[in-house]
Design brief:
The protein is mainly alpha-helical and 112 residues long. The protein contains 5 helices and no strands.
Length: 112
């Protein structure tokens, strides 16, 4: 099997193969909200947006709402980044690359 054929096969079967791997599924589920600490991390963007909105830094109401939405989005992204960095082990990308390399090796050995 050529590299192009493997990539085509991988794209067609990627989701199924990844969800058969318990390590990948466990890591994927670890990004979900599971505890009170997770709720606090993801409630922070709402609190930050409300505080910004009520601070009155921007006098124009529409711009104030847009800026507070921006604050909420940025705070959410920072919170999600913090949660992903506090998880032990490899990232989803690293696990996927390892699984893909294993299947690539299997195909090279079998010559399929």
């Amino acid at each position: 099997m050529t590299e192009q054929e493997f990539e085509t096969w991988w794209k067609a079967n990627r989701q199924q193969l990844l969800h058969q791997n318990s390590e990948y599924v466990e890591r994927e589920n670890s990004y979900k909200i599971r505890s009170g600490a997770d709720l606090l991390i993801f409630a922070l963007p709402v609190v930050a947006a409300i505080l910004f909105l009520e601070s009155g830094i921007i006098r124009h109401e529409m711009l104030n709402w847009l800026a507070s939405a921006g604050v909420a989005i940025v705070t959410f992204l920072v919170s999600a980044f913090i949660k992903s960095q506090t998880l032990p082990g490899d990232s989803l990308y690293d696990i996927e690359q390892r699984i893909k390399a294993e299947y690539r090796k299997q195909f090279a050995e079998k010559g399929e």
